[in-house]
Amino acid sequence: MNETWTTLVGNAATRPDFWETAAGVAVARFRLAVTVRRWDRRSEGWTDAHTSFYTVWTWRTLAANVAASVSLGEPLLVHGTLRVREREKEREREEARQGAGEGESGPKRWVTAELDAVAVGHDLTRGTSAFRRVSQAKPLLNAPTGATSP
Amino acid sequence: MNETWTTLVGNAATRPDFWETAAGVAVARFRLAVTVRRWDRRSEGWTDAHTSFYTVWTWRTLAANVAASVSLGEPLLVHGTLRVREREKEREREEARQGAGEGESGPKRWVTAELDAVAVGHDLTRGTSAFRRVSQAKPLLNAPTGATSP
Amino acid sequence: MNETWTTLVGNAATRPDFWETAAGVAVARFRLAVTVRRWDRRSEGWTDAHTSFYTVWTWRTLAANVAASVSLGEPLLVHGTLRVREREKEREREEARQGAGEGESGPKRWVTAELDAVAVGHDLTRGTSAFRRVSQAKPLLNAPTGATSP
Amino acid sequence: MNETWTTLVGNAATRPDFWETAAGVAVARFRLAVTVRRWDRRSEGWTDAHTSFYTVWTWRTLAANVAASVSLGEPLLVHGTLRVREREKEREREEARQGAGEGESGPKRWVTAELDAVAVGHDLTRGTSAFRRVSQAKPLLNAPTGATSP
């Protein structure tokens, strides 16, 4: 209830990072850059207005296929639910790990906009794609890229 | 103003029909079937709830790439603006062309839900895709499929 | 799964019709007109481009509040899931009731675009609104308008 | 192009702050809390899953009506375009103004999720609203609340 459904049209700003959870669920995560373009009357052309960055999360079969299909910089269409997340603790933990932080205040909040995707596709506005159906019954154990933890 | 932006997740119910307008603008049109699935507590599985059909319109480079990439039945993700259209006159014209209609009342309204797409992609939830970028400067004259009029 | 979430910005084209189902669930239904407006360079102003009509369904507390708050013509913002419905049987039943149909072909399909709303509000772009919170524990039996069946 | 249209269903987490720009354009800004609720099978009830905060911007007539209609805590429905913004410079300026910052590192990035709204309404899921149409020709000079600068 109250889920914020949205669709992002942008480019992969990182390669998908792929791993499996302790429970054996496949996960792929990547950053997406969404650049809004506006029509400029004077130059009679489109110009970049501003860029927003999102962290996209995918799960199970979608995660495996994203890891197998998406390369850095490719244009994508991502549909899912949005969440604005404050990652206070994670940030602190990360800083501690890096030996930082004696007396430093540092960022108290680390806000990220995250999209839990239910569908992802290459944007045909910018190119062509050859699709190959994957059986959904297939086990996810033989994931296409080496599993890494976040 | 007041555009109805939406994203459809479904399957191509027809092959894309591709042609160029008199002004030389590439157009590709296809039908998309969107089947909502609901979780059934008793069977502990997903079951089809109902299917909606939409007419999807694409233009220019997107139209050429859709015609070159999309096959019947493939899973797609389509983002654009929605319109509910009453095609009274077209329908009448079509009937007249087919020699129908002496004294018959026939359908007075012919309502279709149409989506003017700005982005289309193969849904990676169901398979993998290999993307190949197309130069946007490329002329659309050498369109990938034979031009047909609607 | 595969639900088509969308938001309509338009005007109530009918008064809400309110009733309770046999199971005692409150329902309110109305038609919404969505008129897209485009910027006209020559006249330097907005002009109406086209109008789409939707049937909006609301349930339970939302239905009671819509029936109590929404008048014909008021500007609204409606968020929910879309469905394109073919109402073949209902249409036939309706025709039969009206004594129509001996030998007539009549419309074989009756397509409507329907939105199952989860949130509805008066659009503050066009006016002001005074909000009064309603307890959700309140029974729906004392519904604000007379119950009518569809 | 590539605008991220979305709809937020939540509650006003601040009162709207209303002012006019140097160019005389009315602006109203407020924070919106969006709390996702999930169905809990064990308790057979809805529980709060997580809350996202957004900064909502409204302009012109909508800004004046939002300032005149929205109170702290009221349930709202907001439709518009999303942007994830890094407010590095503003943050630094703000710190400088407050006399902070000699030698302190402080937050380098200040990320906020912002929605540029085109329509806002009280959510009738939670109560009733009485709407009063405002003439759009009306000048915005007599704004309903005292003008304050951001």
Task: Provide structural commentary.
Four copies of one chain form a homotetramer. Chain A has a five-stranded mixed β-barrel. Chain A is globular and about 55 Å long. With 150 residues, chain A is mainly beta. Mean pLDDT of chain A is 84; it is low at 101-106 and 137-150. Helix content of chain A is 13%, strand content 49%. Chain A has one domain: Nucleic acid-binding proteins (OB fold (Dihydrolipoamide Acetyltransferase, E2P)). In chain A, strand 2 and strand 3 form a beta hairpin. Chain A contains two helices and seven strands. Strand 7 of chain A pairs antiparallel with strand 7 of chain B, so a sheet runs across the interface.
Notable traits:
homotetramer; about 150 residues; mainly beta; OB fold (Dihydrolipoamide Acetyltransferase, E2P); 5-stranded mixed beta barrel; 2 helices; disordered C terminus
